[in-house]
Amino acid sequence: MDKNNGRQTSMENTNTTGSYIKAARPDDAALAAELIFDTDPHVFGYWFNGTREKALKYFAFQWKSMEGSFSHIFARGAFNGGNLVGIEAGYDRQTQHREGRAFFRQAETLLENSEFDHFSRSLNYMAYLNPPIARDAYYIQTLSVSKERKNEGIGKLLIQSAFERAAKEGYRSCHLDVAGDNPAVDFYLHMGMEVLCEMRTPFLEHYNIPRHYRMVKYF
């Protein structure tokens, strides 16, 4: 990502299974939407009032767009044989604030009035579950690997690429948020991250949304 404008630069890494990293493609919207949803299904299910299909439609729309928090322009894809097998997407604090407005506008356009009202209320709680991004940090919004390609080192390839890129562009740390019951917590610890803080929102626990960890790796 170019630290000055929050948009990705081209780069490519490869692992021993033949998977490689390059700029994400808008044409992979359907699969990307699935990968995004699977990173935190309880949270995203709550956003869209338990309707997975509505969530996938929204994320696919955002992915294809040239703006918004889940746009492909902020993502790198892991590919194997030309097929998308994983994604990593992120940005800094300034970009999050800018693209969050587009994220909200698109929801207002795509959702029915009652759906949008619920969506808006649910986002208010997210401010207490996900702390602000540090000013000197790169924030991983999404890191996900397709279920069929687990245990092939693709997640490691994606996160190492993110760490290398963030450090090269002058960020002092890399942050992400993850549900406390997500097995990915152990993976992130193995990759040198640590738990910076723990957040819980009692109201959201009624919707099976557990405590979340803000994890960090300092450079």
Summarize the entry for a quick read.
The chain is α+β, with helices and mostly antiparallel strands and 219 residues long. The protein has 8 helices and 7 strands; from the N terminus they run E-H-H-H-E-E-H-H-E-H-E-H-E-H-E.
What is the number of helices? 8
Write the H/E string, N to C.
EHHHEEHHEHEHEHE
Per CATH, the superfamily is Gcn5-related N-acetyltransferase (GNAT)
Q: What is the overall pLDDT average?
A: 93
CATH class: Alpha Beta
- The beta-strand count equals 7
The unreliable regions are: 4-11
Described by strand count, sense and barrel closure, the largest sheet is: 7 strands, mixed
Strand coverage percent: 15-25%
Helix/sheet category: alpha+beta
Radius of gyration: 16 Å
Q: State the shape.
A: globular
**How many domains would you count in the coordinates?**
1
By CATH, the architecture is named: 3-Layer(aba) Sandwich
The end-to-end distance, rounded to whole angstroms, is 17 Å
Helical fraction: 40-55%
**Annotated CATH topology:** Aminopeptidase
The main sheet orders its strands as: 1-2-3-4-5-7-6
